[in-house]
Design goal:
alpha+beta, 6-stranded mixed β-sheet, about 35% strand
Length: about 180
């Protein structure tokens, strides 16, 4: 019991001066983290499929070719817009409000068949969109002198939602079986 007490007092005598002087080991020191850091980490690690090209079933012979009927969502448009400046709280802050989106399809075309590595013969379907975003930007500061500046802004973002259509050849039975395998 006496050795344990002596060991605890010795450990306290070594650790307390380090803590008082600010020399705590790095892993015990709390680090300030900005609130926007969580959003950036989620973008980086949780949403990995944004930049992958989807592979769709083959285009059947004698049927109208597919059109681009999947415009980008508001979340996708905001993701590709430049991020607002993450300033210092109460010194310089920037906010965006009152979003309004106008999405316009620019291009809808299908390339001829070619061979793509890891996919095989396929056709590239181009779907290009022009997204115009109208919003209100507010810049404000409370220190050293308070001010608030509100401006109406317009930002144009171009988004490509290209995807591949497998090519099964002219045989309708093979096309139907490939479609069934991809859908189910």
């Amino acid at each position: 019991m006496r050795k344990l007490r002596r060991l605890v007092l010795l450990a306290a005598a070594v650790i307390l001066p380090l803590h008082a002087g600010g020399c705590l080991p790095f892993f015990l020191t709390p680090l300030p983290v900005q609130p926007w850091m969580q959003e950036r980490m989620q973008e980086k690690y949780c949403e990995r499929n944004y930049f992958r090209t989807p592979i769709m079933p083959p285009i059947r012979e004698g049927v109208l070719p597919p059109t681009c009927e999947d415009p980008p969502s508001e979340k996708q448009i905001l993701k590709f817009m430049p991020h607002p400046v993450s300033g210092v709280p109460y010194v310089y802050e920037e906010f965006r409000d009152n979003y309004r989106f106008v999405v316009k399809r620019i291009k809808d075309s299908i390339d001829p068949v070619r061979f793509y590595p890891l996919v095989g013969p396929a056709q590239l379907h181009h779907c290009h969109y022009e997204c115009t975003v109208y919003y209100t930007e507010t810049v404000e500061s409370a220190y050293p002198f308070p001010f608030r500046c509100v401006k109406n802004k317009v930002q144009v973002v171009y988004i490509d939602k290209d995807h591949l259509h497998l090519y099964a050849g002219p045989n309708p039975d093979v096309q139907e079986s490939m479609t069934r395998d991809l859908v189910h």
